[in-house]
Structure formats: C-alpha cells, structure tokens
Amino acid sequence: MTSRWAEATFDEVLPVHGHRIHVRVDRRSEACPLLLLNGLTRPLERWDPLVEALSNRTIVRFDPPGIGTSPCPLIPLSIAALAEITVGVLDTVEVPVADVLGYSHGGAVAQQLGFEWPERIGSLVLASTTCGIGSAMGDLETLAVMLRPERTPDGGAAKTVPLAVLYRSLAISCWTSIPFLGSIAKPTLIVNGDRDRLVPPVNGRILADRIRGATAVTVRSGHDLQHPERAAELASLVGAFLDAQN
C-alpha cells in the first residue's frame, strides 16, 4: 500500500469500474491482507465480530453494488462481473495479492476469483457456500425468512436495495463452478455448519472433492457463521489456516 492507504482505518466510497463502492480497510500488519466477501444481502458491517477477532490482520472489505451504502447497479451483474469488481477494489486500494474469505453468496465470487484471477489470491476460505448449479438444495423457506429486514439486528437487509437482492439472486441462480473447481490450485479451507438448512453441509464435501488439496471442516452451527457467537470460532479456524500457509 502507498501512503494513501497507510491509515489504521480507511473508509470511503470509491469509483470502481463505473460503480461507487463503499470500501473499508483496517490495517493492522504488513502481512498479506485478508479480503472479505459477504453474503447475499449483508453490508460490510456484518463482518465486525470477525474483524475484531482477527485483530492482527489487515482486512479489506466492501459493499458490492446495491448493498449497504454502495448504489444499486442499473443492470444485473453476473458472478464473473462481481469478481471483476472485486479485483477492481484490490487495484484501487493497491493490494496486489490478498487471502480471500467468501461467505455464502460471497463464496461464489471467491471461487470465481480462484479460477479467473489466481495471481491475485494467496489462500482461499469458503464458508457456508456452494458450487451454484449442481449443489445440494437447501430449505427455501429458510431463505425467505433470512431475507426479512427484521432478521438483521444491524439493519443489514433494510440497507439493501430490494432490486439488488433480485439481481444477486439471479446471478447465483444461473452460475456454477463445477466446470472449473478442479483448476483451482490455491490452498483452500471449506467451512460449513452442521445444522445449516440453507446450505446443507454436504455442499462443503462437493467443493472439497473437486478442489485439489482442499480441507473441509464442519462446525456446530447453522448458516450464519458471521453471528457474534460463531465469529470467534470461524476467526480461529481462518487464522490458523492462513498462518499454516506462511
């Protein structure tokens, strides 16, 4: 990072590939930064418990178009387009390589990064996520409940543009990583909750069986590995995994 990004915390809305993207950088060390990619409706603040637990790592996170304080795009964006915006965020804050943690919908973007932009990734963590088409289906009623604004105490869903939720749902519904999972060669940790009704834990096995050398871990949890009661355990797993790669 240059001097512009040397502040302990950088928090601005920046132009990225024609979009206005809310980006936050918490700088704690000179080690490889960790890029966080969020779920379907969640703003970057939902990472706060995990960021606090990973207090010794530089963290890059952002709101994709239509989420949080990033304006909604005019047209739907594919998973590949979201991956390109993600690379644009790294370019904008001058991070050449980052470890990547993708949660739920963000895990799809993380897989796309591992395929299209491997030179920008150190290690990969996929949490509560799937391969898209070809995955084991979860409970759609659970998804409907999770999308209700009152389900997010910090107002996460209320801060999300409904049209953006539709766009992001369309992106994941017509995407699959099955054809390219075998080409991902980055150290990969896959974490699933054993009581996840939205992304059944068998999806972790589907990913692990196809990504070379991937490690799959099942924890006692539902889908929400970001929840304050779960974030410390996820942070411990992620921290130990990333430390082992260095």
Structure characterization notes:
The protein has 246 residues and is an alpha/beta fold. It has a single domain (3-245), classed as Rossmann fold. It is 32% helix and 20% strand. The chain contains seven helices and eight strands. It has an eight-stranded mixed beta sheet with strand order 1-2-4-3-5-6-7-8, sandwiched between helices. Strand 7, helix 6 and strand 8 form a beta-alpha-beta unit. It is globular. It starts with 8 loop residues before the first strand and ends with a helix.
The amount of beta strand, in percent, is: 15-25%
The number of strands is 8
Alpha plus pi helix count: 7
What class, by secondary structure content? Answer: alpha/beta
CATH class: Alpha Beta
Poorly predicted ranges: 149-158
Strands in their spatial order, largest beta sheet:
1-2-4-3-5-6-7-8
Query: Share of helix among residues?
Result: 25-40%
Order of SSEs: EEEHEHEHEHHEHEH
| Radius of gyration from the alpha-carbon trace, in angstroms | 16 Å
CATH fold type: Rossmann fold
What is the CA-CA span between the terminal residues?
A: 20 Å
Integer average pLDDT: 90
Number of domains: 1
Indicate the overall shape.
globular
Quick overview of this protein structure:
With 246 residues, this protein is of the alpha/beta class. The protein has seven helices and eight strands; from the N terminus they run βββαβαβαβααβαβα. The chain has an eight-stranded mixed sheet with strand order 1-2-4-3-5-6-7-8, sandwiched between helices.
